[in-house]
Amino acid sequence: MGLEKYEARIVRGHIMQILKVAYPGPASVELLEVTLNDRSCPTSPAVLNGYLAYLAEKGYITRWEEKDDILGVTRTLVKLTATGVDLLEGNIPADPGVVL
Questions:
Q1: Is the CB of residue 16 less than 8 Å from the CB of residue 95?
Q2: Average pLDDT, the chain
Q3: Domain map of the chain by residue range?
Q4: Cα 48 from Cα 76, distance rounded (Å)
Q5: What is the pLDDT of residue 70?
Q6: pLDDT digit string (tens) for 59-75?
Q7: Which residues partner with 75 through β-bridges?
Q8: Phi-psi category of 26—alpha, beta or left, where left has phi over 0 and alpha has psi -120 to 50?
Q9: In this structure, which long-range contacts are made by residues 41-47, counting pairs with CB atoms below 8 Å and at least 24 apart in sequence?
Q10: Quick check: 2 pLDDT over 80?
Q11: InterPro entries per the record (predicted)?
């Protein structure tokens, strides 16, 4: 397996762990970017979007846009699903695409 593919698996695991701290609430994409950078996993918005798409397609996360009319901004929020929690807790078989 190439190093780039292995790094993607590690970053997906970091995303899941960050979201576990916020659970049952969501985290913003901006918070994920900052926290990944703090964990020495710098990523671009496009690459992060790819990681989130993968995790969403697997059913581990949900993501949605939320508009704040008072501030006039739209944020993307991400939240673990029950399946994502089960993966983190080892209640379902390990996923080779996510290093925990």
A1: no
A2: 93
A3: 3-89
A4: 12
A5: 87
A6: 999 999 999 888 888 99
A7: 66
A8: beta
A9: 41/7, 41/10, 41/11, 41/14, 43/11
A10: no
A11: WH_DNA-bd_sf
Residue 34 is predicted with a pLDDT of 93
Q: Which helix H or strand E contains 37, and what residues bound it?
A: helix 29-38
CATH architecture of 3-89: Orthogonal Bundle (1.10)
Question: Would you call 25 helix, strand, or coil by DSSP?
Answer: coil
What is the crossing angle of helices 3-22 and 82-89, to 10°?
110
Least reliable range by pLDDT among 11-15, 58-62, 72-76, 91-95? 72-76
Which among 70, 59, 7 has a CA at the least distance from the CA of 36?
Answer: 7
pLDDT at 26 over 90: yes
Nearby residues of 27 by Cβ (< 8 Å), 6 or more positions away:
18, 19, 77, 78, 79
